[in-house]
Here is the input.
Amino acid sequence: MWPSYVINLAANAGRLANCARQLDGQGIPWQRVDAVNGWALTDAEIDRVYSQSLNAARGKHPLVKPEIGCYLSHLNTWKQIAEGDAPGGFIFEDDFEANPKLAATLEQLSAATSDWDMVKLFSFDPDPKMVWQKPLSTDLTIGE
Here is the structure.
């Protein structure tokens, strides 16, 4: 199975403990990645990574500092995955709730890499519209 990373602010020890309980409970090895605290970013740091005008043209709404910090945390984690030995990795924010089949899902995704680059494991939409689908197992389908 590819490595799993949990993005977590050091001050959120309770969230990290919840993540550990869920991942350890399913035998999923993982490591903590220190999150970027968006509230602590200076205006100059934000200007280096975020364009208000580009976001206004392409985004749905202006980003607030915590969202920018979250995106930077993901970028830092993607870099760790790219520099690592595994061909991929899984990123979790520290407020997830794991499905009981998470370990099996990660195993299947680690083995089936030819049809996708990124997978989102959650949606609020109970019936998302798919233009393409491929079963990975009898109970797991990926698609877009």
Q: What stands out?
A: The first strand starts at residue 4 and ends at 8. Helices lie at 13-25, 43-49, 52-58, 65-83, 102-111. The chain has a mean pLDDT of 91. DSSP finds five helices and five strands in the chain.
